[in-house]
Amino acid sequence: MALTGRTALLAALGSLPVGIWEPSWAGILAVNAPLAVACACDFALAAPVRRLGLTRSGDTSARLGETADVTLTVTNPSGRPLRAHLRDAWPPSSWQPGTEIEASRHSLTVPPGERRRVTTRLRPTRRGDRQADRVTIRSYGPLGLFTRQGTHKVPWTVRVLPPFTSRKHLPSKLARLRELDGRTSVLTRGEGTEFDSLREYVPGDDTRSIDWRATARQSAVAVRTWRPERDRHILLALDTGRTSAGRVGDAPRLDSSMDAALLLAALASRAGDRVDLLAYDRRVRALVQGRTAGDVLPSLVNAMAVLEPELVETDARGLTATALRTAPRHALIVLFTSLDAAPIEEGLLPVLPQLTQRHTVLLASVADPYVARMAAARGTTDSVYQAAAAAQAQSERHRTADQLRRHGVTVVDATPDELAPALADAYLALKTTGRL
Fold first, then answer.
1. Which residues of 176-190 are buried (b: 16+ CB within 10 A; e: fewer)?
2. What is the pLDDT of residues 3-27, one digit of tens each?
3. Does the chain have fewer CB atoms within 10 Å around its N or its C terminus?
4. Distance between CA 146 and CA 83 in Å, rounded?
């Protein structure tokens, strides 16, 4: 079998007589000169790295947990073929742990004057903007003895959006909304705020809904049907302070709140209501206003993608003042915050009347399912102590929720998996009773 490249050269050097390896200038030159010539030729034949042209294309956004493909186009303007290994560097959170080496490294050959494409597949593990770092290219000569190496900055940003896992609940909530809106055979009787139509009375209907004038004009008793009002204003207020940083399961409370807010926004926009977003701790972190029904959900997702919890105490007075400026007329203000006693009693309760006297207020809080499991634990001394601590925490949480209800606030306290559908149900209940 014929030997080529580095293998042939080393074999040739190994076949030299033993005497030639003696420390003499003639021996040194006899061994090193061929190797130096081979390296020089290999270096000369390796394509230059600095002159390469690199451009990017591909995905600019992806939902958390999904993949994003970013294509790198390498153009070789030189007269020598490019044989190279390439590393496309991104932040560590751009891949699942342990997959970075395989995903970021590529081998390619580019003939003179041509271009080739390589695709880096990202699978981000965190929300936010992921920005490409540098591209490192190592160009080899035909013998593989010598290389040229250089780096290029090729900017690109992939925005990692919230996963919106609660969208699986949207079809069932829309079906309930259609029932409320009178577009199916089931109609809301005697409630609501906007007249829809007349129909014949059936046993069980609210007698207050009977239209006596219409009844006098026909032989059957006629009742009014109602549908919820449209074009109501809903303000989603996300508390991004320190309590939102607490992890429940595998994600911060803020992520669960955002997921519930997205389901409510999708449902409310289909109901014909206007939805705005305010994210606040000690200053405004995000504000989305005046979007159309078709644009509101993409706008909210894009704004939420870069939000991170801030390790500061939320300024409840500033949050209230900003919410009142954002919603000057009657609106449903949905406040996503913690039910911890201290922040509520010292921060929110003193300023809550400013909100409730003008707006309908709904508070949504993420409960930790581990606390419920602790409260049910028995069998050992440690389990009993844990159960007692969990029961005390639950009692304080219920007491705080009761305080808020006495101020006219609707409270939804549920685990991350249950918060989004429970919040949607609370919104539909407000629609049904005409409180929105």
1. bbebbbbeeeebbbe
2. 444 544 444 444 444 444 445 545 5
3. N
4. 12
